[in-house]
Amino acid sequence: MQPLEPSKPMTRLVTRRRPGRDRPRREGDVADRRFRLLTAAFASTSVVLLGAMALQLARASKPAWRRFGLGFIGGQHWDPSRELYGALPFIVGTVASSLLALLLAIPVALGVAILLAELAPGRLARPLGQLVELLAAIPSVVYGLWGLFVLVPWLRVTVQPALVETLGALPLFRGTPRGFGVLAAGLVLAIMSLPSVAVVGRDVLRAVPASHREGALALGATRWEAVRLAVLPQARAGLVGAALLGLGRALGETMAVAMVIGNRPELSGSLLSPASTLASVVANEFAEATDSLHLAALSALGLVLFGVTLLLNLAARLLVWQVGRLPDGARRA
Amino acid sequence: MSPPLALSRSVSQPPPRQPDRLTPSPTAPPRPPEKLRTLGLRAWHGKTEVLKGVSLQLLERRVTAIIGPSGCGKSTFLRCLNRLHEVVPGTRVEGKVLLGGVDIYERGTDPARVRGRVGMVFQKPNPFPTLSIRGNVLAGLRLQRSSVRDADELVERSLRQAALWHEVKDLLGRSGSSLSGGQQQRLCIARALALRPEVLLMDEPCSALDPIATAHIEELIRELGESYTTVVVTHNLQQAARVSHDTAFFYLGELIEHAETDALLTKPRHQKTEDYITGRFG
User: Given CB atoms, is B124 within the 8 Å cutoff of chain A?
Assistant: First the structure.
């Protein structure tokens, strides 16, 4: 752990180098090294923290792993009263609500980004952009409250009955309209991740060189045609990155989700039924968890969330790389 | 400031005399008809006036070079000729640009239509990355919503005109961005030519290219100049001499001198022109 205590190697360096011939250069050299070590120390904290966190979670969850093994991840039942713990309902709940959120948020965010970057005149684009940025700064519990008092009743009374009536044949829309559930969580998450996706998307679109846009305009393209033909293809990789940011926010969101998802540890194929996510169940049950196995199981859920987030991020990064490579693959430097 | 000269110099170097019944005056050679004329063209970037009233006449099927130091407004002038200046937020244009006698800035004129009639080639090659070579050539027609009757023939003709056909005829399905820089630029020229534009604008078309590719493009400009009214912005006086019939010298947003290229480069009439071409500034 050398980088964490930078003072040691530095003093050693300074004393060793003092008798050097080229004095001013040596001084700069030392300062440079000192700076490098300092930044390296700071940079290493993120790695160290990540490792320490994983280690701690692994240690705390050991009893659960010892009892259920890897079956914990595939376990379909979560019943503390019978000491039965399985993570699958929460994994499914997390992935389903986050993907639903992305599915709903991406088209809207893309539209907002295109408006802000390409279509709106500067006088409108700036205040509008700031407003969108402001949306991203609202605490999640506020979104949760809105979801609880406005969205959930609306879903229960208006939207879900209509969904059941029209699309009830699909398993995705089966069940009693309760309001609380994956659909509500997905909607709240969509609204929460929309602003950040839109703002990053706007910046990505703005970064596309004007000459591409103008190339299309010069051939008689309308604004929209220029965006579709010249801007979006160039911005693909960055736009996927923006969506990834939204996904990150949706995966880890706890409070707002816990308030509207219904918190039932059940596997269900329907968007209407209440569910639970990895984050929401940990927040809900941690205070009441008294026996050690329950605590260990919750820690194990934390570790799983850690893993799911890591895996999805990795996958998304791969996607960014792949997508970013496409137009460039054959292009010369 | 002296009023702009509308090709007054063309009189000074008459081509070999030909019997010409339409122009009885022995000193005036037959002049090609006017294609494009600007009248008091002024343009702003925010509060800065980039063009301060430029009146310039461009004749049909001639290559006109626009020269001048950086920031003199030559690129802006070019971009006013196809209404591209106005797409940048905070810009403004005043004055008239007559294309075939009709003002392209007239109320109710669709800029997209104007851009279909006035083709443009940019400093950096900018083919559409997601389209094939063939798709790039046809992009303009698709955008103009013209029905393409014989697409294959049009693609071949445009690419031949851009002197690219032999290099890409077997790769038409490949991405436009798979070509070399010079080839990409010729693809962009083919893309513009596919619309059969009345005027072809080129904004420093060789400045991102190596010398060999530059030679290719210059040769191409000379050839195209025989059938298209062409305007080339260039930083390079030799290039102006090599490719253009006429040259216009811009300085600080004003047109200082407009004459036949040889005359302007060898016997400039204005002190500023002389200073510029002898390298005293810019």
Answer: yes
pLDDT at B192 over 50: yes
Residue type, A199: V
Q: Write out the two tokens for B8.
A: 């007054």
pLDDT digits (tens, 9 = 90+) for A108-152: 999 999 999 988 887 888 999 999 999 888 999 999 999 999 999
Residue B148, chain A, CB below 8 Å: the answer is no
User: Do A137 and A84 fall into the same domain?
Assistant: yes
Question: Sheet harboring B34-45: ordered strands across?
Answer: B48-59, B34-45, B91-99, B102-103
Tokens of A302: 């934390």
**Contact A211/B116, CB-based, under 8 Å?**
no
What DSSP string runs through A15-42?
Answer: HHHTT-SSHHHHHHHHHHHHHHHHHHHH
CB proximity B116 to A under 8 Å: yes
Instruction: Report, as ranges of residue numbers, the positions in chain A whose pLDDT lies below 50.
Output: 1-15, 17, 20, 326-333
Cβ-Cβ contacts under 8 Å, B144 against chain A? 219-220
Contact B103, B120 (CB under 8 A): no
Q: How far is A224 from chain B (nearest CA, A)?
A: 11
Domains of chain B: 33-277 (3.40.50.300)
Ramachandran bin of B148, using left for φ above 0, alpha for ψ from -120 to 50, beta for the remaining angles:
beta
Q: What is the pLDDT of residues B125-134, one digit of tens each?
A: 999 888 899 9
Residues of B with CB below 8 A from A212's CB? 126
Please report whether residue A166 resides in a domain. yes
Instruction: Tell me, yes or no, whether A122 and A43 share the same domain.
Output: no
Please report the beta strands in A78-153, taking only residues with DSSP state E, as ranges in sequence order.
none
CB atoms within 10 A of CB B1: 10
What is the reported pLDDT for A11?
45
Average pLDDT over residues B186-191: 94
Distance of alpha carbon A158 from alpha carbon B109, whole angstroms: 48
Among the listed residues B115, B61, B113, B71, the one whose alpha carbon sits nearest the alpha carbon of residue B228 = B61
Contacts of A216 in chain B (CB under 8 A): 128, 139, 143
Supply the ipTM of this predicted assembly.
Answer: 0.82
Give A39-79 pLDDT, tens digit per residue. Answer: 999 999 999 998 999 999 999 999 999 999 888 998 888 98
Predicted pLDDT at B53: 93
Q: CB contacts < 8 Å between A and B, how many?
A: 82
Residue A288 structural domain = 75-328
pTM summary value: 0.76
Alpha carbons B161 and A304: distance in angstroms, whole number? 62
What CA–CA distance (Å, rounded) separates A253 from A251?
Answer: 6
The answer to whether residues B90 and B45 touch, using CB atoms and an 8 Å cutoff, is yes
- Domain match, A51 and A182 both: no
What is the SS3 assignment for B62? coil
Cβ distance B191 to A219 less than 8 Å, yes or no, reads yes
pLDDT at A118: 87
Task: Name the burial class of residue B74, with classes exposed (0-12), middle (13-18) and buried (19+) by CB atoms within 10 angstroms of its CB.
Answer: buried
Q: What are the tens digits of pLDDT across the range B92-150?
A: 999 999 998 899 999 989 998 899 899 999 999 999 888 899 999 999 888 887 777 78
